[in-house]
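Recap for those who missed Tuesday's class. We walked through two folding examples back to back. For each one, the amino acid string is listed first and its predicted structure tokens come directly after. Nothing is annotated here on purpose, so try labeling regions yourself before you check the end of the notes.
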Amino acid sequence: MKKVLILLMTVSLFMSCDSDSTSNENNLANGAKIGSTFDSMRQKALIEMNQGGTIHYSPDQGAVYKLRNGTTIHIPPHSIVTKDGAEIDGPITIDYIEIFRKEQMAIANTPTMGQVPDSEQKDLLVSGGEFYIDIKFNGEQVEIIAPVKVNIATSNSEADPNGMNLWNGETDNNTNNFTWNLADPNDLIFEGSGPVFGGEGNAGGFYDVLIQNSSSLGWCNIDKFAQFPDPKTRIRIIVPNGFDQTNSSVYLAVRNQPNMLARFDMFYPSNNVFEEHYGLVPVGLDCHLIFVGEQNGQYVYSILSTAIGNNATYSIPSGSLITASSYHQVENAISILP
């Protein structure tokens, strides 16, 4: 397992942030590989989601980067240095992506699957916000020597903010499955005592996340386990011929739960089946089974809404596939699900 970083690509970002920030042509940090056209399409979507830009940082004044939706990134004075320990005084590049809803998770392939502590089991999480952050100076990632704070409004997510924990995102190089692991408190913590704290200009209603060191740059998450009742069941999905784990994914969304998404993480080529093998959801729960794939360089998708049967198998007929003009069309189709 390794920390997920975004593919190294160049993109022009035209953002309206605080008065000190500027439009910038950014390079996103890379730890992932392009293995298929589908991977490449996902990476391009992630680049479009990047809300970062360039801002001036001085060691005496620090820097503050503000987003339109209320998120603020505080980089205090004397909190970042170069890899060789030199002070930074000049323009720094911030890459920042925020994901709050299931349709964004499906496009970015960042489902809310959390590793259960002291277990091989993974379980479904409900998210108060996923975010990716990287900070560079002269094209190189900075060293964090004093905590950098990300201040996120709880109103961006419909999830109950109480009881949230912090997680780091990791991917398995062999399966490309994305998993959230509880963050080490030496790396990533909430500021203060408790999950929700007062933010700038607001008496409460913010998550104040402190990034303690550079090892936690990358994907982070504010989540808690969904805690569905037993009995739970395993589910299988038969996908159309020509699709497998390299050019498609199958997800499970729960009715009336916009802030969570499970991924069917095992593929069996002998019968063209994706399987969710941990048993995440209770029998009878109303869910949406979401197929997203790539065909001839375009997105295709299909959505099946059903109450989950015990040890059930479902099929995605080839005739149900809809070709999308862009990933935004796929997002829209998922976003309108009840």
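Example two. Treat it independently of the first, because the proteins are unrelated.
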Amino acid sequence: MDWDDLRIFLGVARTGSLAEGGRALRLDPATLSRRVTRLEAAAGAALFLKSPRGYALTEAGQRLLPHAEAMEARARAGVAALSADDGLRGRVRIGAPDGVANHVLPAVLARLRALHPALGLDVVALPRVFDLGRREADLAITVSPPKAGRLRVRRLCDYHLSLAAHRDYLAVRGPVATRDDLRGHEIVGYIPDMIFDADLDYLGEVGANAPGLASNSASVQLGLIRAGGGIGVVHDFMLAAAPGLVRVLPGEVRLTRAYHLSRHGDAGGPLISRTADLLADGVREEVARLEALSVG
């Protein structure tokens, strides 16, 4: 499967539509449909579920997505490396939830800064929604796409979360064979009245009890779980850097969310636009790399 095939795959996966994907790829929907059919034949698997609501990824498509995104990011990074001195000068402030700010952005921004030494980058890591209209940040990474304001929003990538606990905790408290077994265990999670995005209500989706140990910070929750405080939902991209943690109910519980990147519609000009492109590529590549480590 070559890059041109993966470009077609990503265009449809990100928009969920032949019409929208065609506009992004500058192909008419009929041509795009033929390309998708040919791609699925070459892959030997259905990559999309087609319905009146659009194109949704199948399980095979979900498996292909992070690899396609990583290849896209490497291709763009190569182009950027050839033109590192492209006039990116100034300072850009990036707002992000603390999980992605602590575990994904450091490597991404270090590489970006190495390529563009005249570009200053600020990271504001707060567990809340940023107000781009008030210029709290130039770019904001969010889970749910913002709906209010004159914003330009793009979908970055899917990421995954798993139930996890420290192996020492499980050795003392006993294994978890079913979701019903969770009722007999300590739970770590978000402070219920401080969940600022409905997509962060992981425990409600898993069916676990209210947390005995709670924080508004995903990184603090990880620390509580590593300390043996109980079972909680952990980003897969954090697991590679958390020795001692093991997945709980891995065949039954794995959540999928998506990151989105937003900027104000009239803010920043070429500097913000170009930085947004490079940031998007870097986040996709780093999430795919870390998730691959967590299962390897």
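Answers for example two:
The chain has a mean pLDDT of 86.
The chain has three domains: 3-60, 80-156+258-295, 159-257.
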